[in-house]
Amino acid sequence: MSNEMKNKDELLEEKVQTETPKDQSAKVEKDEYEETYKQMSPFKLILRRFFRSKLSVVGLCIIVFLFLFAFLGPVVYNKWGETEVDRTQVAKIYTEEKTIINEYGEEITIIQEIEIFDDNLKAYPSKDHLLGTDEKGMDIFVRLMYGGRISLTIGFIVVILETILGVLLGGISGYFGGKVDQVIMRIVDVFNCIPMLPILLIASAVLDAFSIAEIIDNSDRIYFLMLIITVFGWSGCARMVRGQILSLREQEFIVATEVMGIPTWRRIFVHLIPNVMPQLIVNMTLGLGSIILYESTLSYLGLGVQIPYAAWGTMISSSKNPEILSNYMNMWLPAGILIVLAVLGFNFVGDGLRDAMDPKSKK
């Protein structure tokens, strides 16, 4: 019996010795797999999906370039100011040709040349002015940089204000429902039905009257422009937040917060709104391009930033003059290109974020 017991113990020891290296290697592989899996956080997964899209990377590069151009450009290239006029006297020769018929019936052509010394107006691109000067004698390249500040600042501030107002009203409407939901949604419907262009025309006339009466300075029109766009633009965000919260408020974690006695405001703004953040981020990014385009349109129509202050839409409005439209493309084409780049950049980034934050995406 003792010999048999010894033989069994020896066999068990041999089996343990033969199986231990495999078990150890399997354990190491399992630990490495678990460690690799833990490092792939949701944020890293979103970044991985985002940077896989070439259009998203292109859009991000465009946005970074525009921000560097608008906010760091005037610091590097400070030769001219935003409203500084080039007072260099330049001789310009204007030629006028007339044909008259004398008393003998002969046609006589008279060419008259007039030499006028004036400020450096409508200059073509040169070493002193990289993109030339406008009809006021101000440097176009510098005004493009300052105009980018206006457009990008308006875009971000308006989007943030619209999101705050939309989240506040949309969250209350979606969580409480009933009469509260009905009242807020009817207000949203009213704002969606208001024709915005006539309201903006009226607001512009009022601002012009205040400017003439020196109640409001032209430099302050930008703040009123932000306010007007925000007041008429928050309804879409509120409707989106309401729809998301309607689907989330019946989930188990919200029922648990009710059982725990958590206050209503914490349920909405601490537990519900963070679950809507992916949709909000995508909505804000896509909205930035639209707001920049909208601000440029208003400035082009004379409802936004006024000369001598720079805005991309205001610079394009110089093309209303047929002479400038045909002969001085350097005065309006660069601003149009920057508007197109800004809108495309934010749309590319918004589409990339939407695909990256989609939980059903398998790419």
What does this structure look like?
The two termini are 65 Å apart. The protein has helices at residues 2-39, 42-52, 54-76, 140-176, 178-193, 196-212, 221-231, 235-248, 252-259, 264-272, 277-300, 312-316, 322-327, 333-356; strands at residues 90-101, 107-118. The protein has 363 residues and is mainly α. The chain has a two-stranded antiparallel sheet. Helix 3 (54-76) crosses helix 14 and helix 4 (140-176) packs across helix 11 (277-300). The mean pLDDT is 78. Strand 1 (90-101) and strand 2 form a beta hairpin.
Number of helices: 14
How many domain modules?
1
Give the name of the CATH superfamily: MetI-like
Give the neighbour order of strands across the main sheet: 1-2
How many DSSP E strands? 2
Question: What name is given to the CATH topology?
Answer: MetI-like fold
CATH architecture: Orthogonal Bundle
Structural class, judged by helices and strands?
mainly alpha
Instruction: Give the overall shape.
Output: elongated
CATH top level assignment: Mainly Alpha
How big a fraction of the residues is strand?
Answer: 5-15%
Terminal CA distance reads 65 Å
Write down the overall mean pLDDT.
78
Radius of gyration: 33 Å
Largest sheet, described in full?
A: 2 strands, antiparallel
List keywords for this structure.
67% helix; mainly alpha; MetI-like fold; 2 strands; 363 residues
